[in-house]
Here is the input.
Amino acid sequence: MRFIAFVLLGFALTAAPSFAQDKPATQDSPAAQDNPADTNSILLEKLKADKKLIVSDNMQLTEREAKGFWPIYDAYQADLHKANNRLIAVIQSYANDYQNETMTDQKARKLVDDLLAIENGEVQRQKSYVPKLMAVLPPRKVMRYLQIESKIRAVVRYQLAQNIPLVE
Here is the structure.
């Protein structure tokens, strides 16, 4: 499980927008020649594969269990990706207001509502997948999978919390 922190540290650092003002790259710089979208896409695919490997290593699935589990896992990850995109949009909105010093009470209220909706969605998503998982895995392995997902989310959230300043 220690590897989770290393893998997801990269995700957390690349998924959250920077709160520091970076200098734009000049056309002659190597950063301008690289395509950040391609780099992020490659990194995201690597992280997904690493996460799947971590889950696989920790789940200890039989062949029969694996046949039922992996399609559910893939569907869950697709739903999780949508939720992560919503969270990133909220963080980006906050980052813009933080950097530009344009946070208002109205914007803060909307961010609070958005964050609570994301949190509620996370619980609802887990509830909706438990019966599917219970249909293909024994309860202890369902619990193990939920623990693995929870630990991964905790690492990501911790990293985000460290890098996102408090609202002023």
